[in-house]
Task: inverse folding
């Protein structure tokens, strides 16, 4: 009888702990996007170079609607496109009565920012640089507070128009537009 009551209490404790946990494994798409070419989004700025056309060569920002406003041809969709796709799109538009054989190059001039929140010294918006990891972003944001959970953090990421949150270790890489949330530790 005593062992049955002890077993029941142990099972109840385990089920309560399991029920309190909101942890879900990070979806596979969360890490697969790291191996794909970078896709532009609102807040990015691209440098467009049109060979021998100084008036068209400039930096252009991707607006909230996901377009850049390019001289002569107007709005060009950028959200979800790679730099190579943008090169082709701009060249195709310029061929339609403006230039015979345009040579267009597009490179990322400035990435959209990342956001760091939670148990860090100075939560806020920070510039993204290629190679940025969670640990580096936290360092830029003033480091962990004494109450911070330093083992894993939550990252919210837009993947193909769908916002996904996943729990990762601090050595994981970040992408432009990511939001890092450092949780408070329990003990």
Result:
């Amino acid at each position: 009888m005593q062992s049955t009551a002890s077993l029941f209490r142990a099972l109840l404790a385990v089920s309560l702990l399991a029920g309190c946990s909101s942890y879900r494994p990070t979806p596979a798409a969360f890490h697969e996007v790291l191996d794909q070419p970078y896709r532009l989004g609102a807040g990015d700025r691209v440098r467009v170079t049109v060979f021998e056309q100084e008036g068209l060569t400039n930096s252009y920002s991707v607006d909230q609607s996901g377009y850049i406003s390019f001289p002569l041809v107007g709005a060009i969709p950028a959200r979800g496109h790679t730099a190579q796709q943008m090169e082709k799109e701009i060249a195709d538009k310029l061929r339609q009565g403006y230039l015979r054989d345009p040579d267009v190059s597009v490179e990322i001039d400035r990435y959209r920012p990342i956001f760091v929140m939670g148990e860090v010294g100075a939560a806020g918006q920070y510039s993204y640089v290629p190679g940025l990891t969670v640990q580096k972003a936290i360092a830029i944001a003033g480091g962990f507070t004494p109450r911070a959970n330093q083992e894993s953090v939550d990252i919210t990421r837009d993947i193909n128009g769908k916002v996904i949150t996943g729990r990762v270790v601090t050595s994981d890489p970040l992408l432009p537009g990511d939001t890092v949330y450092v949780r408070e530790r329990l003990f």
